[in-house]
Design a protein that fits this description.
The chain has 350 residues and is mainly alpha-helical. It is built from 17 helices and no strands. Helix 15 (288-299) runs antiparallel to helix 16.
């Protein structure tokens, strides 16, 4: 008998957690030195670290709300914050990696949208993810050139990396960023894709099967393309208030350990860690993000013990904010909101 698909899915999820736990366990295999670093850590630095990490989540909620407004989908500020935290929670606890929570957000916002605009409501979540991806990969390409000396200094004794392998890894990061940008931006060129005979026929066929959903989504994409100035500003803001804002907590954590560090080196370590964390192999980025950040922090001259301790505290902060989503999940009064109350629907009727 073949295993039930749900069983296979969750067995795979458990396997991902075991892989993440194995990576973290391997990186922290000398607990004595980490305990010593913890004793020297000034816990007062946790306050600004958590504050700035929280800022990036609030900006994400605001960005999504602004993208929804462009399509006429009205989200109250607290509603956007609640669903954003819930999405972060589900990115951690359901299959799908870092984007798993987006599926939950799509379902939630669809339930809150008026009849006839549910697909557009879900599409705002996808567009929010696209804007975030474009910002992240743009930042990566901007720092990759100056980061070459640091990346060439990476040392992993267990792998015995030579210069050619390191260069290949740098090229792979560049290709990953370019591919990510291409995949994120291709949606805005759907009209050209429609003119290609094969793709056009497939899109028309899919439109018929989904009762016009493809046409509605392409029309929504046109709305975003027409609002390119606002979308561009949200993308630029995401570079500073999302991706670079996740770097600032690491500055405070390293300062709390009394470590001397280079600002640019830390930016590279956290950014590359965030990119590796997008790989669906890691639940919520755990494991992959930690290994990449620790390795690069160590390559910058920070001791292995300090790098591991700082990243361990950083991961704990991420988990605290992720689990905060469970509070919003329980207290959220909008779970069963009647779509007729959606302000966008009222505007349409008027």
């Amino acid at each position: 008998m073949k295993p039930h698909p749900a069983i296979k899915k969750y067995l795979g999820f458990v396997l991902k957690f075991l892989i993440a736990a194995g990576i973290v366990g391997f990186m922290l295999r000398n607990p004595g030195e980490i305990v010593a670093c913890f004793r020297n850590f000034d816990s007062r630095y946790l306050i600004p670290a958590m504050f700035f990490y929280g800022i990036h989540i609030l900006f994400c909620a605001w960005r999504w709300r602004e993208l929804a407004v462009i399509l006429g989908i009205r989200l109250k500020p607290l509603e956007a914050v609640s669903l954003t935290f819930q999405g972060i929670l589900f990115s951690l606890v359901i299959p799908g990696g870092a984007i798993g929570g987006d599926v939950v957000k799509m379902g939630a916002v669809s339930r809150r949208s008026a009849s006839g605009s549910k697909a557009e409501g879900a599409f705002t979540v996808l567009m929010d993810r696209i804007v975030g991806m474009i910002a992240l990969f743009t930042l990566e390409l901007a720092i990759l050139g100056p980061a070459v000396p640091l990346l060439m200094n990476v040392s992993i004794p267990e792998l015995q990396l030579d210069a050619k392998t390191k260069i290949l890894g740098i090229l792979l990061l560049a290709l990953l960023a370019l591919a990510g940008l291409a995949a994120s931006c291709v949606i805005f060129f759907h009209r050209r894709i429609e003119r290609m005979p094969l793709f056009g026929a497939l899109m028309r066929r899919a439109d018929g099967i989904t009762h016009g959903m493809v046409s509605r989504l392409t029309a929504a994409t046109d709305v975003y393309a027409a609002s390119w100035k606002q979308v561009s500003l949200l993308t630029l803001g995401s570079i500073f208030f999302v991706h670079l804002m996740t770097v600032i907590p690491m500055f405070f954590l390293l300062s709390g350990l009394g470590v001397e560090y280079g600002f640019f080196d830390v930016i590279v370590a956290v950014t590359v860690g965030n990119i590796i964390g997008l790989i669906p192999l890691f639940p919520g980025g755990l494991g992959g993000r930690d290994a990449a950040a620790i390795t690069l922090l160590a390559a910058s001259g920070i001791s292995g013990a300090d790098a591991k301790t700082a990243q361990l505290i950083y991961t704990a902060i991420i988990l605290v904010f992720s689990l905060t989503g469970s509070v919003f999940l329980v207290l959220d009064p909008q779970h069963a909101i009647d779509s007729g109350r959606n302000e966008a629907a009222e505007d349409e009727r008027k």
